[in-house]
Design goal:
Structural class: alpha+beta
Strand content: 5-15%
Number of strands: 22
Largest sheet: 7 strands, antiparallel
Oligomer: single chain
Number of helices: 24
């Protein structure tokens, strides 16, 4: 037993440390209160595999430890014994069936504990008895990385510790295989590598790596987001992540978003436009609320008219819209301007909130929920807006200049610098809009956005720290910056244009999905009302000042009706993180306003996640690369000597001799022939080395030329030594 402990003791200690780290994280994720007992039992299992010399002893004791662990956490109302085993079997059977039906996303704690603890015992066996370090420690690293990704954990140091246990175990094994004569350079290199990784993970600023890495991997992460990978992680993980979609609760903005392809409604119409639903006016420092909480005016009619705010403006050609709903929502999305709404089926009336210009639908009845809309969209003339002086809307209930008492001063200062050369209200507004939408300092991304910390202002974090976000970040930043300048602004939300289903008809069908949810700022211009703007990169609102006017001029020049270019794939733009595109399709990009899960605090795409992913990938490369280099070191060394040395055959033989001495040390007084015979006796699989030695001595003492046959013999010996290295691993 003492000899076995000396041989396996370090491997057992390293295995215990790594397995205890992994087990502790598993217990934390599944919220087990008693973690110490499980760690003790992991130690007992490792000790069993280290100390007991025979498998017929190790097996029963390890199984007993597993059963004790199971009983400790799941007694099932029974005494430890046969009755408990029967009860355990009855409990596990339906759980296994449920997982087979629903997948591993929500594995019950009893089944998960049984699987994990059994896996711990198996890995302890592989590490301690069979010394399969690459497979075992790679599996532990992979499991920790999965825990980090699926449950939003920061496990950098745990990964480093497990990686260190694997590297140190591999180094000690190599040291022993070389007869104890090799130095500890491998262990020193492993320690230095771990130290560098740990220092980088802890000290390197987030932005130094995160921003560069995120910018270079936009297309890859967007592809995975569109393919549903992040949604799958959100579905099977224990954390709550946010999805694209229209939400009533916007009090806590921020965090990554997952694309949701659910179709909310379809619209048959002449041209695309933004779908406005609601606005909010009170900024909390974390999100948006309403100052007024009235329930609105109930209108039990089949028709409702929402008058246009703008006075004396031109309108686009009237368009008739058939709106069909596919989800049970009460809000009515409408274009900007004058809208006359008719209830076609499924509704009995309206609820109108004039402060927000929001219209809701009442009491669905029979039939497919649908409405008909006759819409006149305003053309905001830029020249006219340039003449409008700064004025505030007359209201006694809402302050459209409101900002939190602790609103960061540097946001006000930034707004002042951005608008320093603007001379009119319109110029000030567009200066802030252009700064956000066109500056290379900001980047659009749904998967890289992060939520502010408890002591951080949402806008301040976005403008000065992360500089990465989606529509909620850009629109909220513009509203608050304008308010800091004394300009009345509010936060509007609804949907972007949606996706046009290809057809040759003049009126096309547009699908509006959850991923089309969007937010933007509205600015008050006297005589025009609340005018929409668009600071989010790659988005273009057709109702923004100048856009509808430009579209009208282009369509007249082309001799066609007033229509905007349509996009066949807004989904492809939904995940765009590039700057504004030159094509018209970029105007139909999708985004999100609010979240389907307002309480979700996703950390997908944050730096800590990148730390985990990068560290795991780097560790795998190091371990796998080191293992491959160790396997093929002999062949690589021989190849270098045959191609780079002046006397390749002689140098090749001396190199192989040195490698053979790692397995069977050679005495200083021992001649080559005697040594080769002793090597062949100890390791019959290296028989070719004797023939190579004979050829080498004939060349050395008799001047015999070394030809192609000698070269082939060198490679044969290299193959045999490599095979010996693998079998003795």
């Amino acid at each position: 037993m003492i000899a076995r402990i000396r041989q396996k003791g370090f491997y057992g200690l390293a295995a215990f440390v790594a397995l205890a780290v992994v087990m502790n994280q598993f217990l934390a994720v599944y919220r087990f209160n008693d973690r110490e007992t499980a760690i003790y039992l992991v130690g007992i299992i490792c000790f069993i595999f280290v100390a007991l010399p025979r498998f017929w002893l190790r097996g029963p004791f390890a199984l007993l430890a597993l059963l004790v662990a199971g009983y400790q956490y799941f007694p099932l109302g029974q005494s430890f014994g046969l009755d408990w085993l029967v009860a355990l079997q009855r409990q596990l059977r339906p759980l296994i069936f449920a997982v087979q039906q629903d997948g591993l996303g929500r594995t019950p704690s009893l089944l998960a504990f049984s699987l994990i603890f059994s896996g711990v015992a198996l890995l302890a066996l592989l590490i301690i008895n069979y010394e399969h370090f690459l497979v075992s420690y790679s599996g532990l690293l992979l499991y920790l990385a999965m825990l980090a990704v699926f449950n939003h954990l920061d496990l950098v140091w745990q990964l480093l510790l497990v990686c260190g246990c694997g590297l140190l175990s591999s180094g000690l094994k190599q040291h022993r295989q070389r007869g104890g004569q090799a130095n500890f350079s491998y262990l020193l290199a492993a320690a230095i590598l771990l130290g560098v990784l740990g220092f980088a993970a802890d000290k390197v600023p987030d932005a130094l790596v995160r921003d560069r890495l995120s910018a270079q991997t936009v297309a890859v992460r967007d592809y995975f987001n569109a393919a549903g990978l992040y949604s799958y992680i959100e579905r099977v993980g224990v954390g709550g992540n946010s999805r694209t979609g229209f939400s009533e609760d916007d009090e806590a903005l921020g965090g990554a978003l997952l694309d949701d392809e659910t179709v909310l409604f379809e619209a048959q119409q002449l041209r695309p436009h933004y779908w406005r639903v609601d606005s909010k006016d009170f900024y909390t420092g974390k999100g948006w609320q309403r100052t007024t909480a009235s329930e609105g005016q109930v209108i039990m009619e089949s028709q409702f008219t929402l008058e246009a705010e703008a006075v004396g403006v031109s309108f686009l050609e009237v368009q008739h819209i058939d709106l069909t709903f596919h989800q049970e929502e009460n809000y009515l999305p409408l274009p900007y301007g004058y809208n006359q709404v008719y209830l076609a089926a499924g509704f009995a009336g309206f609820v109108y909130a004039p402060d927000q210009r929001r219209v809701d639908l009442l009491a669905r009845g029979g039939g497919e929920p649908s409405v008909e809309i006759a819409s006149l969209e305003p053309i905001y003339d830029v020249a006219s807006l340039q003449k409008v002086p700064l004025t505030n809307p007359s209201t006694d209930t809402i302050d459209y200049l409101q900002l939190p008492a602790n609103f960061p001063t540097r946001i006000r200062e930034l707004a002042g610098r951005v608008t320093a050369e603007a001379t009119t209200l319109y110029d000030q507004v567009t200066a802030v809009e252009s700064y956000l939408s066109q500056s290379e300092a900001f980047r659009y991304s749904k998967v890289d956005a992060v939520a502010p910390l408890p002591d951080q202002d949402y806008v301040d974090q976005f403008l000065f720290e992360t500089k990465v976000g989606y529509c909620d970040n850009f629109s909220t930043a513009m509203v608050t910056m304008l308010r800091s300048l004394g300009i009345s602004a509010r936060w509007a939300k609804g949907f972007s244009q949606g996706t046009a289903i290809p057809s040759f008809d003049e009126r096309k069908t547009y699908e509006i999905k959850n991923l089309n949810a969007h937010s933007w700022p509205e600015v008050y211009f006297e005589g025009f009302g609340w005018v929409p703007f668009e600071p989010t990169p790659s988005f273009s609102n057709p109702q923004r000042p100048g856009n509808a006017e430009a579209a009208t001029e282009e369509s007249v020049a082309a001799g066609v009706a007033d229509t905007s270019t349509e996009s066949n794939s807004s989904e492809s733009q939904a995940t765009s993180e590039t700057t504004s595109q030159s094509t018209s399709e970029s105007a139909l990009t999708s985004d999100t306003a609010g979240k389907a899960d307002p309480n979700g605090k996703s950390r997908i795409g944050t730096w800590k996640l990148w730390q985990v992913a990068l560290l795991f990938a780097f560790a795998l490369v190091i371990v796998a690369g080191g293992t491959c280099l160790w396997y093929f070191q002999i062949k690589l060394g021989l190849w270098l000597r045959l191609h780079l040395y002046r006397r390749p055959y002689e140098q090749g033989y001396l190199f192989l001799l040195k490698e053979a001495e790692k397995w069977l040390p050679r005495q200083s007084s021992e001649d080559l022939t005697s040594y080769s015979e002793k090597l062949a006796k100890a390791y019959p699989e290296t028989a070719a080395f004797s023939q190579l030695t004979k050829t080498y001595e004939e060349h050395l003492y008799q001047g015999r030329e070394l030809g192609a046959a000698s070269r082939e013999l060198l490679w044969l010996v290299a193959d045999q030594l490599t095979a010996l290295k693998k079998t003795q691993r």
